[in-house]
Amino acid sequence: MLRYKRFTMLHIRLFQASDSLTELTALLHRAYARLGQMGLNYTAVDQSAEVTAQRMRGGRCFVVVDASDKLLGTLVVQPTYAANECEYFTRSGVAAVHQFAVDPARQGAGIGRMLLQQAEQWARESGHTELAMDTAEQASHLIALYAGLGYSQVGWVQWPGKLYRSVVLSKRLAG
Hints:
alpha+beta; Aminopeptidase; 4 helices; GNAT superfamily N-acetyltransferase; GNAT_dom; transferase; N-acetyltransferase activity
């Protein structure tokens, strides 16, 4: 549990079948709008609910909700996957985070940190020794945030169809 600035109780849990994919997708759109306005064509800027569901497969989708069960943040964590464009995401012992978002109205309240801590815990419990993610080079605010949370730059990747190069960041997980 985490108390938001206005003392609203927040709870982290797995995305449930009863949750709305449409609402989750709308959260992603709101959270990625600033990046889209920077000219960065992240998938989450305008993906459909079907793409949201597809990107959740093979991983664990965690959400942060308030007392009224409103979705405020999300991320997907999963074992590494076959991504020929990024060798780092195929390494043994590395789990990956993607589709990471916090509602812009709630950013700065610790929701993102809460989600990353949950992902790190899941990764450790699943036998992983590192947690990795990527973000556009131009998203310096995100790179600085992740660096402040212990993530270090370990490489770059150019995803097909993206107008930007991504920085790959990773954090070694303590046992």
